[in-house]
Amino acid sequence: MDIIRMRYFAAVAETLNFRKAARRLEVSQSSVSRQISLLEQELDTKLFVRTNRSVLLADEGAALLPYALDILGAVESASFLMQRLKEGAKGQLAISAVSTSSAILTDCLGVFFERYPSVVVDVTLNNGKDQVAAMTGNKYDFHFAHIDMLPANDTLDWVVTHTERMVLVVPKGHRLVGMGPLDFRELRDERFIISFEPGRPLLHNQILEICRSHGYEPNIINRYDKVESVLLAVNAGLGISIMPEALPKLFFQNSLDIIPIEDMDTDRQYIAAWPKKLANPSAKLFLEVVREYIGKRGERSGG
Question: What is this structure's pTM?
Answer without folding.
Answer: 0.70
